[in-house]
Specification:
- By secondary structure, the protein is mainly beta.
- Helix content is 5%, strand content 34%.
- It contains 3 helices and 15 strands.
- The strands form 4 sheets. The protein has a 6-stranded antiparallel beta sheet with strand order 2-3-7-14-10-11, with no helix packed on it.
- The longest helix has 4 residues.
Length: 228
């Protein structure tokens, strides 16, 4: 059969790798039907510090939350004191500024596409690293059928001391049609000033390549009952 192509006797599928779920975003906040959203934007300056800037694969740009009485974190403790927040299933309403990425909806009007994220990374703004970076946060996933945000991961009292991304494994992975980063505290705990807003240079979401690999993609026929 001239159309057959085999890659080794046993290595008939690629090794598993982590793949970035989100495409490179731009100031339209809509690329390939992925939509980036933020609870607030500093001075409404979307073109420079909008939510897309956390998904553009450029460590020199960043999302910057608004600075006002309704959006502020405590300048000394970094704890959120504003009015934004999200209702989390089995937890309740949690206050904080947030980033959100919506996955594409299917064109036939079925429920949105769902992806299982198993790992993510966060990068701080390259200056003001110790005071404006996330300290404590939730990663949430949206389930269409439940119309609810579900806890995917929780981190507390994290410290950034350089621009190097921090990588986290997801504690409760699942198939979700949107992901949200809710930040309820900012700045390193040894800082006592200038912790009144949040800035994120990169939030990368990764899925395992095996999660989308099916037997019909193998180089060899997959029939364990016959092969043993």
């Amino acid at each position: 059969n001239p159309n057959s192509s085999y890659v080794g006797c046993y290595n008939d599928k690629p090794p598993s790798t982590n793949v970035n779920v989100v495409p490179v975003m731009n100031s339209s906040n809509n690329v390939n039907s992925f939509r980036s959203i933020a609870s607030s934007i500093y001075l409404n300056a979307n073109d420079s510090v909008g939510p897309w800037a956390a998904f553009d694969q450029n460590p020199g740009t960043f999302w910057h939350s608004e600075v006002s009485s309704s959006n502020n974190y405590n300048t000394g403790t970094g704890v959120y004191e504003g009015s934004n927040g999200v209702n989390i299933k089995n937890i309740g309403n949690v206050g904080g500024e947030f980033l959100q990425i919506n996955l594409p909806a299917w064109t036939n009007q079925n429920p949105s596409q769902s992806i299982t994220v198993n790992q993510y990374s966060l990068s701080p703004r390259l200056d003001l690293i110790t005071t404006r970076s996330p300290n404590s946060w939730y990663v949430l996933g949206w389930i269409d059928s439940e119309q609810s945000w579900n806890q995917v991961d929780r981190q507390q009292n994290q410290s950034f001391t350089s621009g190097t991304p921090k990588v986290y494994n997801v504690s409760s992975p699942g198939a979700y049609s949107a992901y949200l980063l809710l930040i309820d505290k900012v700045g390193n705990d040894d800082q006592t000033t200038n912790r009144y807003c949040v800035q994120v240079a990169e939030w990368n979401l990764f899925m395992n390549s095996d999660s989308t690999f099916t037997s019909d993609q193998r180089a060899m026929i997959w029939n364990p009952d016959a092969i043993g």
